Amino acid sequence: MKRSSAFDLESFLPYRLSVTTNRVSRAFAAHYQQEFGIAIPEWRVIAVLGAFAPLSSNGICERTAMDKAKVSRAVASLLERGLIAREAHATDQRLIQLTLSGPGRKIYESIIPRARAIEAEVTRGLSKADVAHLHRMLDRIGARLDAIELD
Q1: For residue 50, what pLDDT is reported?
Q2: pTM (2 d.p.)
Q3: Which residues of the chain are modeled with pLDDT < 70?
């Protein structure tokens, strides 16, 4: 079947980024789903709390770019399993802050070396300069998206 020359989906950057992101997420999920019973959204919540806690659910949404419903389901599941904890904000009792619990921190610390190993496998064949260049390009795209979202 002949593709339209007006729009080549396979060279459309947003499509390629989405497909690549989904493939990388599945590669990670295959490892921590089996061992820890954690789905992709739950891992993202654990990862962001491990790096930036305490955070509100909105803070998690901002840092992960996941929608509120997905974050809410992941947070509810992690709370139910005792992997994260809820606490009131120090100066505003109406705000709820989320942190990793002891067992959640243990999972986070167990997954990090595995995540680094998967990252190394995904980027094998790329030089350090290639990886650094990719990070710079993603930063530039992110900055442009920030500017677009403000318009």
Answers
A1: 96
A2: 0.82
A3: 1-5, 151
Instruction: Give me Rg for the CA atoms of the chain.
Output: 18
CA distance 81 to 87: 16
CATH value at residue 89: 1.10.10.10
pLDDT at 35: 85
Q: Could you tell me if 54 and 98 are in contact, meaning their C-beta atoms sit under 8 angstroms apart?
A: yes
Domain that holds residue 71: 9-125
Contact 78, 46 (CB under 8 A): yes
Quote the number of domains for the chain.
1
Taking CA atoms, 123 is separated from 63, 100, 126, 139, in Å, by 23, 29, 6, 18
β-pairing verdict for 96-100 and 84-88:
antiparallel
